[in-house]
Amino acid sequence: MKQFFTNQLQTLKSTPKTLLLTYIIIYFCWGLGMNQFGAEMEIARFSYWWQVITCYILYMVPISILLKEYSFFNQYAYGLVAMGILEFLGYWLQTSYVYPNNILDQLFNPQNFSLGMALFFALYFPAGNWLVAKVHRLIF
Fold this sequence. Notes:
The chain has 140 residues and is mainly alpha-helical. Helices cover 75% and strands 4% of the residues. The protein has helices at 2-13, 17-40, 51-67, 72-92, 103-108, 113-121, 124-139, and strands at residues 44-46, 96-98. It is globular, with a radius of gyration of 16 Å. The chain starts with a helix and ends with a helix. The model has no long low-confidence stretch (mean pLDDT 96). Keywords: Membrane, Transmembrane, Transmembrane helix.
């Protein structure tokens, strides 16, 4: 187990700085945009704007880097676990706000809201890795 974590840490440390910066910029903008979209559409939002940094940069970027070499399906599957934990904790700790009777509640019912959010946001890992790779290749 110790070897596993050592290998994962080494993968993160060996990530080129230009690639890491590309992840940070893209995920930060993506997070701000999604938080704004969720608030404007009255679906859900972070309780504090800076949670974009903790969730998208400090949580999702390292996971994306660790998953980037996997297939789409494996990135999605592992991402689903990661996002399930994040969504559960966000609503349980009330650091995320869900607007009552939002469009997703009406469509799927409130009991399925956080599951639906986890299923959707798990796509960020394969989609984010694809986008970051394209942008990084284009620029660098």
